[in-house]
Automatic annotation (TrEMBL):
It comes from the Bacteria. GO terms for molecular function: histone deacetylase activity; hydrolase activity; metal ion binding. SUPFAM superfamilies: Arginase/deacetylase (SSF52768). One of its GO terms (biological process) is epigenetic regulation of gene expression. Its cofactor is Zn(2+). Transmembrane segments: none annotated. The lineage of its organism: Bacteria, Pseudomonadati, Pseudomonadota, Gammaproteobacteria, Pseudomonadales. This is Acetoin utilization deacetylase AcuC. It comes from Pseudomonas extremorientalis. InterPro entries: HDACs, His_deacetylse_dom, His_deacetylse_dom_sf, Ureohydrolase_dom_sf.
């Protein structure tokens, strides 16, 4: 399997995030992608290639131009204040406030964010831009005939909406790739999100559309981030009604419970008749992940990959979460090896 990877991800290394009432070191760190890349090489999964640059146009198919302009220029504006620490929001346009776009940097950051978990640093824009190009390069490989490809993206993307960053995510790599498939002639794309946390950004982007089926297996938002999206009754709206399927599961769920939800999601994908499958590959479902509560073990990821392969779809894997750094490479590559073994 071809892996696309950019060393630009090292340019983004946040010092802190807001969690549990305090500023603490970021769980989303460069070593995450480093461990996955090393495992790809150790297991001789296949060639590793740097991304091509497709420019801003594919990003603008998903993200608002004003949002992209803000994100690209935020660090320069921050340094004009003489600051060099992480740029984090401290106020948001909540329910009783007016949703207007202020002129100040901090006001705009709050407008374009939904939490305090996506710090902007000097290299964040370039890292996120390159991650999107990683996804697009892997997408191009499949468009040209490859049955599968792995986009080793960092930072991740599935929490990013068209004009919102949050949850470690800035640009929605999976959504950008899915839209590229549609723009290049495919009629139906299915997205399977297996990250522990609901892909709220991806859902919101495609919620009123029927050309992308979104399915997500995740911790129940009654108790888990992002809290305000990911419930089972969210089925899409307008033209997209009936094309959104969430499978929220309780904390402590192991493989038996999780795999039953996977089976339901796969049946929906089969019924949909997608041309292409995009997998938002989060492995924070692992039993020892520090910020998640499922109980999957490393061999389960081989089985997961094999079940996805039985869908028989050209499949793009896009890296999302996973924070047990020593095991993230094992678990992510197990999915890919399980897929490849079953697809042969």
């Amino acid at each position: 399997m071809l892996t696309i990877y950019s060393d630009d991800h090292h340019l983004h290394h946040g010092r802190c995030e807001l969690m549990d009432g305090q500023l603490m070191p970021c769980f989303e760190m460069p070593s995450r992608a480093d461990h996955v890349l090393q495992r790809v090489k150790d297991r001789e999964l296949g060639p590793v290639q740097a991304p091509y640059d497709f420019g801003l146009a594919p990003l603008q198919r998903i993200h608002n131009r004003d949002y992209l302009d803000f994100f690209k220029g935020a660090w320069a504006r921050w340094t004009e204040y003489g600051e060099d620490g992480d740029l984090l929001p401290y106020t948001w346009p909540a329910r009783t406030l007016r949703r207007v776009l202020p002129t100040s940097l901090h006001g705009q950051l709050g407008y374009y964010s939904f939490d305090g978990g996506a710090p902007i640093t000097a290299g964040t824009w370039q890292a996120a831009y390159s991650a999107a190009q990683v996804a697009l390069t892997a997408q191009q490989a499949i468009q040209r005939g490859a049955h599968s490809a792995f986009a080793l993206c960092r930072p991740p993307g599935h929490h990013a909406a068209s004009d919102l960053m949050g949850g470690y995510c800035y640009l929605n790599n999976a959504a950008i790739a899915a839209q590229a498939f549609l723009d290049q002639g495919h009629r139906k794309v299915a997205i399977l999100d297996v990250d522990y946390h609901h892909g709220n950004g991806t859902q919101s982007i495609f919620y009123d559309r029927r050309d992308v089926l979104f399915t997500s297996i995740h911790g129940h938002p009654e108790a888990e981030f992002p809290f305000f999206l990911g419930y089972a009754d969210e089925r899409g709206e307008g033209a997209g009604e009936g094309f959104n399927f969430n499978y929220p599961l309780p904390a402590g769920s192991g493989w038996d419970t999780w795999s039953a939800a996977l089976e339901q999601a796969c049946r929906e994908i089969e019924h949909y008749g997608a041309d292409i499958l995009v997998v938002s590959l989060g492995v924070d479902t692992f039993k020892d992940d520090p910020i998640s509560q499922f109980k999957l073990d490393s061999p389960d990821y081989l089985t997961m990959g094999a079940r996805i392969a039985r869908l028989g779809k050209p499949t793009l894997f896009v890296m999302e979460g996973g924070y047990a750094v020593e095991e993230i490479g094992i678990n992510a590559v197990n999915v890919l090896e399980g897929f490849e073994g079953a697809a042969q």
